[in-house]
Design a protein that fits this description.
Layout lengths: L8 E5 L3 H12 L5 E5 L4 E8 L2 E8 L6
Parallel strand pairs: 1-4
Antiparallel strand pairs: 2-3, 3-4
Amino acid sequence: MFTIKKIDHVAVCVSDIDAAAAKYKEVFGLVGTQRENVASQKTEAILLPIGESNIELISPRGNEGS
């Protein structure tokens, strides 16, 4: 048996990353610290620190019409 010692992050897929980030700030007071476009995965991501972990918001980019 193993023991979970820490969760690095939990990813949440959202359709509008800016609207989702604004809602997380409004409701929970969380502010994004790192934002990046991940071209290889056609996504954009933003990390919202919460304690020693993060909530990662992920939004699809460039997949329209696929």
